[in-house]
What we know:
Low-confidence stretches: 1-5
Helix content: 55-70%
Number of domains: 1
Order of helices and strands: HHEEHHH
Strand order of the largest sheet: 1-2
Number of strands: 2
Strand content: 5-15%
Structural class: mainly alpha
Radius of gyration: 19 Å
Shape: elongated
Amino acid sequence: MDKFSYNKPKLKIPKSPLQKALDILASIAFAAGIVHLIAVWGQLPDQVPAHYNGAGEIDRWGSKWELILLPTIAAFLAVFMTFLEKHPEWHNYMNLNEGNIEFQYRNSILLLNVMKNECVLLFVYLNYQTVQVALGQAESLGILFLPIFLAVFFGSMIFFIVRSIKHK
């Protein structure tokens, strides 16, 4: 391996309008999820769904206080992934060279941004749907939840990996 592989340059790459828009959308959804949880807190039973199986059916019940875990995890992931977005020189690349480094950094940053915001939206949806189940307004996540989530999440990864490979 050459020296370039180990000492990747640090480039100042500003957020694109798409990244800013995705961050704003996820932030609004996150805030709305917190407001919703606070608004319905008094109506929630002591026991709420705490885990779902692959078919979206409840397989464990727990304290309503466990609902605080979902936004906490979402916030932690958002902060951590935002930090990683700012350091594309730490990311792992295939075929990185001086001719494609800026594209590869931008691609990697956008991948992280998209996945970060998908994670936040996932946790907001899980919290909302769990509240709906606890209040008797829904029965489960639904059988399509997991396949749709996996298709979106892995679809994003595949899109950005293919994009990276095409720009050797």
